[in-house]
Amino acid sequence: MTQKPVLSVEGLKTYFYLDDNLVAKAVDGVDFTVNPGETLAIVGESGSGKSITSLSIMQLINKPGKIVDGTINLEEENLLDKTGKQMTKIRGNDIAMIFQEPMTALNPVYTIGNQIMETIIKHKKLSKKNAREKAIELLNFVGFPRAKDVMNEYPHQLSGGMRQRAMIAMSISCEPKLLIADEPSTALDVTIQAQILDLLADMKKELNMAILLITHDLGVVAEYADRVLVMYGGQIVEETSVEQIFEDTKHPYTTGLLNSLPSLEKDMTRLGAIKGTVPPAHNFPKGCRFSTRCPHVMDRCYTANPELLEIGSDHKVRCYLYE
Which N-terminal stretch is annotated as signal sequence (predicted)? Predict the structure, then answer.
């Protein structure tokens, strides 16, 4: 029996209406699903549309941004039909998000305990006493050796790794169906990074939670993801399983990302690099959005953007090389 997806995104378009009548198509026709107990990674350089996709799901797009088309279904409910008040009930309860920099996501004037308890009281309607017990239990679960003391501490009193653990404790306090982790370990050193990602993997198993992992690090993808979406220019350019992405890469952009990874097996004097930069979202090339940087570019790539084609079992790619 096939599982119903926790999250199903179809035809999502999020545009930013700038001065001088410019429209930045930050997310432009994105489709994907995330299943219970699965980690789906969205990969790409800065400016490819990864974070705007996650903020669109959370309904946290501010002016001049606007979701102009598509559906975002959490199980059977389209989140785009929800009022602001209804979304406030869903955020933190059914969907939670771990932000890239916990210092900006945690409130500096409230204790860690206060902030976790507030979420529990709001969504689970527990008494203060029970909410406090639950918060201590969560801090223990995410690896705080002195959870009771941390309850009374402020964000600035904790290290970066401990702040991120506190954020995770807060995000799982209501056992969400979907956890969005936006570069959850970027600001941390490598050993702490591994601890945080191991913790997320353990929680996924324990709670059968779906995780949407936003990252630019293919090493993290290899270790922790089940499926991968590669984004470029606000669109998905490749979608497949984590094994396929490393063994049978198809899109020239994905190949470029993989070639820029250091390897212990290859004798390399210099890492590969993708020439040029991601074009601004208000000024994409007319045809394929990767055409200005692609080593395999053909004449037709300059005139029309290719469709995302299914080229094998669970493997899609947006490239004329595979038509």
Answer: none
